[in-house]
Amino acid sequence: MSTPKILILGAGYGGLLTTLQLQQKLHYNEAEVTLVNKHDYHYITTWLHEPAAGTASAEHARVDLDRIVDKQKVNFIKGTVQSIEPEEQTVTLENGNVLSYDYLVIGLGSEPETFGIEGLKEHAFSIRSINAVRNIREHIQYMFSKFKNEPHRTDYVTFVVGGAGFTGIEFCGELGDRIPELCKEFDVDPRHVKVYCIEAAPTALPGFDPELVNYAMDVLGKKGIEFKIGTPIKQCTPDGVLLATGEEIKAQTVVWAAGVRGNSIVEKAGFETMRGRVKVDEYLRAPGYDNVFVVGDCALIFNDEGRPYPPTAQIAVQEGETLGENLVAMIRGGLTQKFIPHLQGTLASLGKGEGIGQVGSKKLFGSAAALMKKASDLRYLYKIGGVGLALKKVKL
Amino acid sequence: MSTPKILILGAGYGGLLTTLQLQQKLHYNEAEVTLVNKHDYHYITTWLHEPAAGTASAEHARVDLDRIVDKQKVNFIKGTVQSIEPEEQTVTLENGNVLSYDYLVIGLGSEPETFGIEGLKEHAFSIRSINAVRNIREHIQYMFSKFKNEPHRTDYVTFVVGGAGFTGIEFCGELGDRIPELCKEFDVDPRHVKVYCIEAAPTALPGFDPELVNYAMDVLGKKGIEFKIGTPIKQCTPDGVLLATGEEIKAQTVVWAAGVRGNSIVEKAGFETMRGRVKVDEYLRAPGYDNVFVVGDCALIFNDEGRPYPPTAQIAVQEGETLGENLVAMIRGGLTQKFIPHLQGTLASLGKGEGIGQVGSKKLFGSAAALMKKASDLRYLYKIGGVGLALKKVKL
Q1: B329/B275 same-domain check
Q2: Interface test with A, best of B57, B137, B142 (most A CBs within 10 A)
C-alpha cells in the first residue's frame, strides 16, 4: 500500500489548522501532506479592517507560513487553484500543474456577496486579503491628497461602507480613528469628511443584543460615522452609490462589507452548493464523496434549529482541528469524531480600546470587550505559532 | 504723512526673505508690512523631490510661518492672490478683499512650463507644492497597491520623469531609493518596476560639467533609472507618453520636471513679461513702476553675457535680502543698492548620501557633494529660523 496523499487547498483558518494538526500528529511517512496556497503567508482575516483603514500595517496581519509550517513534514506549493476534479481525484492549478490526492481538504475561503447589486463588483472595494486592504488604505490616502488639490471635490473625502454587519462596523471603528490622523497629515478640515455606513437590514449588527447594537452605534456616531439603516443600496457607480430611497451619495470610495458567499471554484467542481457553500455532513464531508472535506467559509453547517452557522474564524478553526484529528484517525484506521461547533462568544472591535461582545449570556462593553478580543487573538496566535508569535503580534 | 504700506505677495524664498529683513530692521510704526500667502507655512522647494518620492515626510519640508514671522510686526493674511492692479496700487484676493499698497513685492513663484506639449497639464504631476508632492507620493503608493491586484498592468509600476534637469535628476535619485522600499512593502518583484527619465535636450543636466553629468547618470543608472536623452515627449495621454521617436511608454505616473515659467497673475497684471517672468531693473523694479518689485521665479535678470539667470532658491534668497534692505532705505530716505547675484555654486542630490556639485571651479562627487548640500541647507534654515529650526530640520 502506498502512502496516502492528503491535499489541502488554502491556508486560511480551516486549511491551516488542518495542516498544523497533521504536522503535529502524523509520524514520518504516514501520509504525504501537501498544502497549496496563493501566498506564502497566512493572514488574520479578522484583523483586516485595521490595515484597510490604515490603523495598523498590513504586515501586522500577516504570518509567514515558513514560521509555522514545517516544510520537512508538509509539502508547500505556492499556487492558485484553478479547478477541482473530484471524479478524477485531481486539482488543477493555474500554472497547469495537476495534483492528485487520496484525501482532499477544501478551505478556499469566500468571495464577496454582491446580491446582484449593479456596479458593486466593478466599483467597490472589499476587505478580503492583504493585497486588497493595502489597496484600500492607499486609495483612501490618495483621495485625501487629491482633495487637497481639488477642494470642490468632496466626493474624494466621502466614504461609503456598505453593510453594518460585523466587518462593516469594525471597519467603521477603525476609519473613525484614522480620519483625524489623515486630516492632520493632509491638512484637511475634518468637517469636509463624511463616512456613511449603509445597511439594508432593519438593524445594524443583526443577531446582536439591541443594547450592544445601540452602544456600538453610539460609539461610532461619536466618531463621525453616519448610519443609514434599513436603506438598501440600489447601484454602485463610478461616482458613488444610488440608494433605494432615490438618494445619491457621491463618493469615490465604496467599501463593500455586507457579506460573503462561498467559492466559485467549489461551485464549478460540481458539488452541491448554496451560495457557493457546500452543505457538509457531520464529518465535514462533501455530499457524495467520502474523501473530500470542506472547512471554513466554503462549508455550510446548520444548528439544531436548522439555521446555518455564519462563516466565522472561530468555527473554521474548530473545523480544521477536528478534521485534522479525523484524518489522522482515518489513516490509522481509528475512530473519527463528529464535528460539533462550540460557540465561545462574539466580539467586535469599535476602534482603539473600544468594542462590544456577547459571551454566553454576558454582555461586554468598551474596554472590557476590547480586552477580551485581545485575549482571543492571543489564544489563536499561540495556537498556530506559539508564544513567540503571540508576543510578536499582539500589542498589549 | 501716513505710515507707508508694504505689501508682499508670497512667502517663498524671495517674499519670505524680504519680510524677514523688514521684520528685523524696521522700527515700530516705520511701515505697515503685510504678507499674503496661500498657506500658513513656507516650504523648502529645493527639498520637495524627497516627499514627492516618499523618502521624507511632507511635514519635513514645511516651516510654519508662525515660527519665523513675528505677527506683532508683520500683518499676515492667509489668502490667494487673484489679480494685481498696479495702476490703482491694489491687489485683489480670491475672497474679494482688496488690499492697497505703497510698495508692492511680488514673489508669487512659478508655474510648470509645458512647452505646449499636449496632455501634460491634464495628465502629468509636477513637484511644485506641499499639496502636490503629497499627491504624487500617494499616487505612487496607490499604483503599487493596484499593481499587486492586477499584475498584468505593468503601467501601474512604470514611472516617467519628464526632464533630466535639476528637479528631474534629484527626483530620480529619490525614486531610486524609494522603489526598493515600496517593492518590499507591497510584495512587488522589483523587475516589474521601470523608471524612465526622458529629456529633450542633448544632455542631462545642461550647464553642468560633463564629468559630473556622467557621474550622476551612472549613479542613477545603478539605481535602475533608464535615461532617454535627446528624446522629446510629443504627447501625454491618460495611458502614458508618446515620444517624438514614435515610441509609446505606457505609464500611469508621469511627473513633469522639465522647467518652470513665471506666474500668470503677473502676466495678467499687464507687466511686460517673458514666459511669465518680469525683466526687472537693477533694483528689482518692474519696468515703469518705481514701487513694484519682483523677486524669485517671477523675476528675470540677466548676467553680463546677456543670458538669463535660471530661477533658483539661491538667487531668490539674495533678491529678498537686498530688496528688504532697499525698502528700509527707501522709507528712511537712505541709499539703495543695486542687486548683484553672488553665485555660490550648484549642488544636486542623487538620493541618500549621493550628489554632485560645482563650487567655483571645484567639482564635488558623492558624499562630499551630499555633505555640502546639507551645509547649504543648514545655512538657509539658520538664516530664516535660527539654530532651533536648523537643528529640527536637518538630519546630521
Answers
A1: yes
A2: B142
End position of a domain, from candidates A258, A290, A311: A258
Residue B348, phi then psi, degrees to nearest 5: -120, 135
Determine the distance in angstroms separating the CA of A297 from the nearest CA of chain B, rounded to an integer: 22
Burial class (CB in 10 A: 0-12, 13-18, 19+), A36: buried
DSSP string, B28-86: TTS-EEEEEESSSEEE-GGGTHHHHHTSS-TGGGEEEHHHHS-TTTEEEEE--EEEEET
**Which of A130, A138, A252 is the mutation pick for testing B, counting most B CBs within 10 A?**
A138
Active site residues per annotation of B: 170
pLDDT in tens, B317-348: 999 999 999 999 999 999 999 999 998 889 99
Subunit contact A148:B131, Cβ cutoff 8 A: yes
Cell of B302: 540677466
User: By C-alpha distance, which of A382, A276, A296 is closest to A339?
Assistant: A296
The pLDDT tens digits of the residues spanning A52-94 come to 999 999 999 999 999 999 999 999 999 999 999 999 999 999 9
Domain that holds residue B338: 5-38+79-110+262-344
pLDDT tens-digit series, residues B60-89: 999 999 999 999 999 999 999 999 999 999
| Confidence (pLDDT) at B390 | 86
Residue A142: closest C-alpha in chain B? B138
Contact A138 B137 (CB under 8 A): no
pLDDT digits (tens, 9 = 90+) for B90-104: 999 999 999 999 999
B213 backbone dihedrals φ, ψ, rounded to 5°:
-60, -45
Long-range contacts of A89-94 (CB under 8 A, 24+ apart): A89/A291, A91/A7, A91/A9, A91/A36, A93/A36
- The complex's ipTM works out to 0.84
> Which residue among B132, B142, B185 sits closest to A139, beta carbon to beta carbon?
B142
Q: What is the least distance, in Å, from the CA of B258 to any CA of chain A?
A: 21
Instruction: Compute the radius of gyration of chain A from its Cα atoms.
Output: 22
Contact A240, A155 (CB under 8 A): yes
Q: Which residue has the cell 463528529?
A: A338
With a cut of 70, list the residues of chain B below it in pLDDT.
1, 395-396
What is the domain count for chain A? 2
pLDDT at residue B396, as a whole number: 56
Instruction: Tell me whether residue A57 is in a domain.
Output: no
The Cα–Cα gap between A387 and A85 comes to 40
Instruction: Give the nearest partner residue to A149 out of B131, B185, B187, using CB atoms.
Output: B131
Instruction: For chain B, list residues whose CB is within 8 angstroms of any CB belonging to chain A.
Output: 131-132, 134-135, 137-139, 141-142, 144-146, 148-149, 185-187
Give the Cα separation of B392 and B383 in Å (integer): 14
For residues A295 and A237, membership in a common domain is answered with: no
| Shortest alpha-carbon distance between residue A149 and chain B (Å) | 6
- A148/B134 touch (CB, cutoff 8 Å), yes or no: yes
Give chain A's length: 396
At A239, which CATH number? 3.50.50.60
- Which residue, of A318, A344, A370, is where some domain finishes? A344
pLDDT value at residue B395 = 67
B133 and A148 Cβ atoms separated by less than 8 Å: no
In the block, cell 484597510 appears at A52
Which band of pLDDT confidence, cut at 50, 70 and 90, is reported for residue A28? confident
Partner residue facing B145 (CB), from A135, A145, A187: A135
Q: Distance (Å) from the C-alpha of residue B83 to the closest C-alpha of chain A?
A: 21
| B135 in Cβ contact with B289 (< 8 Å) | no
